[in-house]
Task: structure prediction
Amino acid sequence: MNTIYKSISGGVKDIDIQKRVVTGYLSNFGNKDLHGDVIEKGAFKKSISERKESIFFLNQHDWKQPHGKFDVLVEDEKG
Result:
């Protein structure tokens, strides 16, 4: 593995350049955003189970600028 970045707290966890795989969290539970919203455990479960194949990683939520598609998309205890 050719790792260039590692973080122990949220966000990007690992980047494998050779496999072109990024591992990490899109959202952590319990954090308050700029608007005061807090994501609770279970918030993504239904969407992941019903729409897993149609969820994309977009640049600033812009469908014209997709970064990629997820190989694995799960909700765990952290996010």
